[in-house]
Amino acid sequence: MAMVVTSAFAIWKGLAVITNSPSPLVVVLSGSMEPAFQRGDILFLWNRETYVDVGDIVVYNAPQRSIPIVHRVVHQHVVEEPISKSKKSKTLETSKKTQYLLTKGDNNERDDLPLYGYGKNYLNREKEIIGNVKGYIPKVGYITILITENQYFKYAMFAALAISALFSQD
Amino acid sequence: MDTSQLERFIEFPIDFKGQQLVERISYVLITFGFIISLFFGFALQDITYSFYAFIPFVLLSIIIVLPSYPAYNKNPTVFLKRPVSKPINIEIN
Amino acid sequence: MHSLAQRANTLSSIITTGVFIVMILVSILTIANPPILNNQIRFKSAKPIVSLKNTRNYGATKQKPKENAKFKFDMVADFNDLVDWNTKQVFAYVYVEIDNDDSNNNDNENADKIVIWDKIFDDKSKMYFNQKNIKSKYSLWDYSPELHGRTGTFKLGYNIQPHLGPLTFGTIDLNQTITFPEIKV
């Protein structure tokens, strides 16, 4: 059992390093991307491109929200901005290109501006995007939704584990 | 109910030959099921049909493999009898 | 394999391994021959209407108003080529690439891209699209407040969503360039 847990953790962290995304696999929790993604679908993320394109589906951390959001990019701007002198950066470059994005859920009437919070009109590619959705497995992640949202299912699973531990002979 | 009966009730044990047979059956059945259902889905040009076509194979393998059928218990392991120690009579003249 | 629990365990691990192999196989098949849109798309847009907005819903504030543009266009497109046995839906979107003033070079990496219309095709028997006078679903505004005088190019993007495996993306040039007119008062 300990072997399973540790190897799963190692694979998870290894994937995070390869994909450059803090959570390379996510489970869809909302229906805002239906019919493309339903609740419980598993998404594979990749986070090594400098810029994402319009039409890509990205996962981002919205401010003041604990759960990452999966939505589609509808605006993209690459803006060249001067680096502020106060940071005392040692590089010779005086400006830096930043990508700004606006996102929208396929199933939502309008874009995500209300989700960003007042005064924030765009997402920052580097700071807020966790990954770009590259692959998809349907429904398999529903078990995590059951565990987190349905307490009876959680108790039933603990009971099943306890019973199997009692009767196993190895 | 003594302990061996309780064990039979919980474990559904099968003998060694039966275990070998069951393993072979489950590999063949599942592989066969995957191939058939993938072709089925491809023929109908929809991979969701492959998924539905695979469900009967899973049910079938559960029905065939899990219970302890008499066929899996034809070759019970015969344990050696414990040698009975008899008192040795020694004659002393 | 002696007890019921062990047999159930072995059976489920065989099935899981099989599912894993099938998923990898299907993904390789999808990556190996990605669907490409071969047929021509006919697209024609009328001159956009530019107006000045000063609410947040249009990317602006009272202090910093932004120019927004509305479109009307005709489009004929056939997405049947994109459908294969693993297709769940095709998400098609029309976007405008606006040339940046500061980057006159040909690489369009820096061009602003804004989606003005999209449609989900999730019925495999209805992949042909032919409509006139389509109104843009989303108002267009840029990062910088001004639009008039700049040029925009129409592009069509599509995202094929599979039942299982990798997502496929593609872009087609719609061969039309417009210049944003002055603000209509």
Automatic annotation (TrEMBL), chain A:
It comes from the Eukaryota. It is found in: Endoplasmic reticulum membrane. GO terms for cellular component: signal peptidase complex. GO terms for biological process: signal peptide processing. Residues 16-74 form the Peptidase S26 domain. The keyword RNA-binding does not apply. Component of the signal peptidase complex (SPC) composed of a catalytic subunit SEC11 and three accessory subunits SPC1, SPC2 and SPC3. The complex induces a local thinning of the ER membrane which is used to measure the length of the signal peptide (SP) h-region of protein substrates. This ensures the selectivity of the complex towards h-regions shorter than 18-20 amino acids. SPC associates with the translocon complex. Catalytic component of the signal peptidase complex (SPC) which catalyzes the cleavage of N-terminal signal sequences from nascent proteins as they are translocated into the lumen of the endoplasmic reticulum. Specifically cleaves N-terminal signal peptides that contain a hydrophobic alpha-helix (h-region) shorter than 18-20 amino acids. This is Signal peptidase complex catalytic subunit SEC11. The lineage of its organism: Eukaryota, Fungi, Dikarya, Ascomycota, Saccharomycotina.
From TrEMBL, chain B:
GO terms for cellular component: signal peptidase complex. It holds the Pfam family SPC12. It is a multi-pass membrane protein. It is found in: Endoplasmic reticulum membrane. The keyword Transmembrane applies. Belongs to the SPCS1 family. Keywords: Endoplasmic reticulum, Membrane, Transmembrane, Transmembrane helix. Component of the signal peptidase complex (SPC) which catalyzes the cleavage of N-terminal signal sequences from nascent proteins as they are translocated into the lumen of the endoplasmic reticulum. Dispensable for SPC enzymatic activity. This is Signal peptidase complex subunit 1. It comes from the Eukaryota. The chain crosses the membrane at residues 21-43, 49-72. InterPro entries: Spc1/SPCS1. GO terms for biological process: protein targeting to ER; signal peptide processing.
Automatic annotation (TrEMBL), chain C:
Belongs to the SPCS3 family. Its main location: endoplasmic reticulum. The chain crosses the membrane at residues 12-32. Essential component of the signal peptidase complex (SPC) which catalyzes the cleavage of N-terminal signal sequences from nascent proteins as they are translocated into the lumen of the endoplasmic reticulum. Essential for the SPC catalytic activity, possibly by stabilizing and positioning the active center of the complex close to the lumenal surface. Essential for viability. It comes from the Eukaryota. The keyword Ribosomal protein does not apply. It comes from Pichia kluyveri (Yeast). This is Signal peptidase subunit 3. GO terms for cellular component: signal peptidase complex. GO terms for biological process: protein targeting to ER; signal peptide processing. The keyword Magnesium does not apply. It is a single-pass type II membrane protein. Signal peptide: none annotated. It is found in: Endoplasmic reticulum membrane. InterPro entries: SPC3 (IPR007653). Keywords: Endoplasmic reticulum, Membrane, Signal-anchor, Transmembrane, Transmembrane helix.
